[in-house]
Specification:
By secondary structure, the chain is of the alpha+beta class. Helices cover about 15% and strands about 35% of the residues. A hairpin with an 8-residue loop joins strand 15 and strand 16.
Length: about 375
């Protein structure tokens, strides 16, 4: 073997990413972008799932999680699955059901539709069914498979592991859309369940510190490490700018609007326009701000790794403790309205003029200057 060949062979064992190697071998499309319209993602047959699918890798996904798109044909179903990674599923389109088999053999079946949210208990057997004979169904799941694959780099350990986690299944009525409200404080109140029939209809709690009459609820799903919350902005309002670590995947639930992202105050903004089906993930430490331009309220869902119950990293612990809604001036990561760049509000008023919605920000910002 020549010196050059020996060097090349050595590089085969250098800077490996077992997850990326694994997903390339699955034979499904891999979409990489800043933001993605999940309705437009091409799917192809996925032998493992027994249906069509795709992987979605957003710029801000971080090291620990990614998205999978499962495309169920009319009248179709997935193969039974079981795996040692966590999965939170958001229904983009379609109607159907999922059956989860608990460690004691009991089966829990629940019916889902557009904008349903549910979690699959760790290493429980499950199967998805499309309830329509004429329309397809699209499910998008946030998982921590990248973390698990890169830790163990063993497909067999993750997908063929018999260990049971009965404590993750929770109460039987958690699969029926019931749950338990866990009061914490504004912006941190939790709803513990496994299944939310409709995020659009979910009752939210006030969160004044994030600005302009916004509301929110955090989900504790299947006692897991995966975080999810949904927030709503009233008509004619927007959230305060803030920053955090990578991997918060933001999905529009209802309404229309846009988000601006930047690192430095004078940067050109990166802009993502959203409606239901669009998802994006702000990169590590990148300021971002969400704006409702719809004549009605706008609501979004965020999925990340590191939950309020199990933060996983110190940065997530700090984020959920106080960083998310504490001003930069007080050591947090939020930009107060009075401190934001004036061009942010100017852009917003210009956008409202296009949609006909009326600004309700006058009580927070002196609009006579615009």
């Amino acid at each position: 073997m020549s010196e050059a060949e020996a060097e090349w062979e050595a590089t085969d064992k250098y800077l490996l990413d077992p997850y990326l190697d694994w997903i390339k071998g699955e034979g499904i499309p891999i979409v990489e972008d800043f933001g993605v319209d999940l309705f437009a993602v091409e799917t192809k047959p996925w032998a493992r799932m027994g249906t069509k699918g795709a992987a979605v890798h957003l710029k801000g996904r971080g090291d620990f999680m990614s998205l999978f798109l499962v495309d169920l044909a009319p009248g179709g179903k997935s193969d039974q699955q079981r795996h040692l990674f966590e999965e939170v599923v958001y229904v983009i389109d379609g109607h159907g059901s999922t059956t989860v088999v608990a460690a004691d053999g009991r089966k829990h079946t629940f019916e889902w539709g557009p904008k349903s949210l549910f979690a699959l208990p760790l290493n429980a057997t499950y199967q998805h069914f499309n309830g329509s004979g004429t329309e397809s169904a699209r499910l998008c799941s946030g998982t921590n498979l990248p973390m698990m694959m890169n830790i163990f780099h063993s497909e067999g350990f993750i997908f063929d592991n018999p260990y049971e986690f009965p404590e993750r299944v929770g109460a039987a009525d958690y699969f029926a859309g019931e749950g338990e409200f866990l009061p914490v404080k504004p912006g941190r109140h939790m709803w513990e369940t496994n299944f939310v029939p409709s995020l659009s209809n979910m009752e939210l709690q006030g969160w004044q510190n994030r600005g302009a009459g916004g509301t929110s609820i955090v989900f504790a799903l299947a006692d897991g490490l995966m975080h999810s919350h949904t927030s709503e902005m009233p008509v004619g309002t927007y959230k305060k700018g803030h920053r955090h670590g990578a991997d918060f995947h933001v999905f529009c639930v209802h309404g229309t609007g846009y988000s601006l992202l930047w690192y430095n105050p004078d940067d050109e903004y990166v802009r993502v326009d959203w409606r239901h089906g669009v998802v994006f993930a702000p990169p590590e430490g990148m300021f971002h701000q969400h704006f409702n331009t719809d004549p009605s309220s706008a609501r979004y869902l965020a999925i990340a790794l590191g939950s309020q119950r199990y933060p996983f990293t110190e940065s997530k612990r700090s984020h959920f403790d106080k960083g998310v809604d504490t001003s930069l001036k007080d050591g947090g990561n939020q930009i107060e309205y009075e401190d934001q760049n004036p061009r942010i509000h100017k852009i917003y008023l210009e956008e409202l003029a296009k949609t006909g919605a009326e600004s309700k920000m006058g009580q927070f910002i002196d609009e006579s200057k615009y």
